[in-house]
Design a protein that fits this description.
- The protein is mainly β.
- It has a single domain, classed as Maltoporin, Chain A, CATH 2.40.170.20.
- It is built from one helix and 24 strands.
- The chain has a 20-stranded mixed β-sheet that branches. A two-stranded antiparallel sheet has the order 8-11.
- It is globular and about 80 Å long.
Length: 453
């Protein structure tokens, strides 16, 4: 069981407020969390049970989660909305129940696994602002998999899964009237929806090893139900500084993928390459537009055929018992094959990146080390209008750690990380703060102490 609470502030101007017109003393203290702000409390209760015999192994996972979030803002009149009586702009109370039952059975060279999974979500909103309506979702799925050992160095695997999901989105109207064609109406922000989704997905793969090589290949089909936010949102998302509008006509997202990996190791070198290819007949994403609603850029959910492929690669060299060097990189290509943005990539696509570093261990047991790492990111000129390109950058990072052995099994792990040592100013293309010209953090030092007993 875990229970966590946090409180944080918003950027006031991104929240639709003019700080110069507010009576709040924003300069009172650097530790002040004034309006606008939010608090979040997340409760999780989870149970894991397992039983086994010579041939069977069963597992049962049960969980309950309750997430409550309140967004508070200085009450001001906005557009046709009169001044609210309280600072409670939004409140979300979502409960989630999940269950997973799986059974493994070994028969000769076969390792069979089957099971059932289910999830129920219940969300209720409150406050004078709106972005996501009340909703309930229920889903259930069944799966079966087989892992067949053909030889000691050759393993085949395959799986099949069926899913059913039901989403009920409740209607919502503004609590204040808006003039439309000479009449005052309570504008509907979300309509009543009842959607049912079914899908049959599959996968197959092979693992093969020979000498110092290990190779894997997989092919399969995946499926994702559109979430209530994608179907019924209509409001300002203050976390990422944009106006979001859902699409009740979205179909489930499907994808066909091929991925593989090849690794080689000889005790000194470790090299691994992982290419992948995805094709989405109906990829769901937020499409940026040139329109502005309530002072922020409008994004609306849409679908398009998308082809995506890329690769991840890494190499590590153990020069000695004390020295180790490594390099790694990743590249992603995406292209829309249909829709109004046909020929463009996807919004907020990641540029290529690479890391190169060296690590020194003071002892053979590697309980004490220091490392230096350079993180390099390329220019991102592949954009979706009206996105803007982002310049590349590189940062220098340092880390060190040591384990102190105490009595018995007790130990203390101490680790320090210092990121962006040169205090460079740069922008991450995938960061929403880039939209309001806020760069990434400068020099940042963190110390972690962990007691293990």
């Amino acid at each position: 069981m875990s229970d966590s609470y946090s409180k944080s502030g918003f950027f006031a101007n991104a929240h639709g407020l003019e700080v110069r017109l507010s009576d709040i003393d924003y300069d009172h203290s650097r530790r002040d969390i004034d309006l606008p702000s939010q608090w979040v409390n997340h409760l999780r209760v989870q149970s894991h049970a397992m039983w086994s015999s010579k041939l069977f192994t069963g597992e049962l996972n049960l969980a309950y989660q309750n997430n409550v979030r309140e967004e508070r803002s200085e009450p001001v009149s906005h557009g046709y909305m009169p001044k609210p009586e309280s600072s409670l702009e939004r409140r979300f109370n979502k409960s989630t129940y999940t269950a997973l039952l799986s059974i493994r059975y070994k028969y000769g060279r076969h390792s069979l696994q089957g099971g059932l999974s289910g999830e129920c979500q219940h969300n209720r909103r409150d406050g004078w602002g709106f972005i996501i309506p009340d909703f309930e979702t229920n889903s259930i799925g069944g799966f079966v998999m087989d892992r067949y050992t053909l030889r000691d160095n050759l393993i085949l695997n395959a799986g099949l899964r069926f899913d059913y999901a039901h989403t009920h989105i409740r209607a919502y109207q503004d609590w204040f009237p808006t003039p439309v064609n000479g009449a005052s109406v309570y504008r509907q922000r979300s309509g009543e929806q009842r959607r049912h989704f079914t899908s049959l997905t599959w996968s197959a793969g092979v693992n093969y090893s020979v000498g110092q090589w290990v190779m894997k290949a997989n092919v399969g089909k995946s499926f994702r139900v559109p979430i209530p936010k994608e179907l019924g949102a209509d409001g300002v998302n203050y976390h990422i500084f944009r106006y979001e509008r859902g699409n009740p006509l979205l179909d489930p997202e499907e994808a066909y993928q091929i991925d593989g990996s090849a690794s080689w190791a000889d005790g000194i070198w470790e090299i691994e390459v992982e290419p992948y290819l995805n094709y989405f007949p109906n990829y769901i994403y937020l499409n940026p537009t040139a329109r502005y609603v309530e002072g922020l850029q409008l994004y609306h959910y849409t679908q398009a055929r998308v082809l995506r492929y890329g690769m991840e690669a890494q190499a590590t060299c153990h020069l000695s018992d004390h020295w180790q060097v490594h390099v790694q990189g990743e590249y992603l290509y995406a292209r829309q094959k249909s829709g109004e943005k046909k020929g463009y990539t996807l919004p907020f696509s990641t540029p290529w990146s690479a890391d190169a570093g060296v690590k020194y261990f003071f002892h053979k047991g590697r309980a004490c080390y220091v490392s230096l790492n350079a993180h390099i990111v390329g220019n991102q000129n592949e954009i979706v209008p009206p996105e803007k390109p982002t310049h590349g950058y590189w940062t220098l990072n340092f880390s060190a750690g040591k384990t102190f052995r105490l009595k018995g099994r007790t130990s203390v792990n101490v680790a320090m990380h210092a990121d962006n040592l040169l205090d460079r100013r740069y922008y991450d293309h995938t960061s929403y703060y880039r939209l309001i010209d806020v760069p990434e953090p400068g020099r940042n030092v963190a110390l972690k102490v962990e007691l293990v007993f």
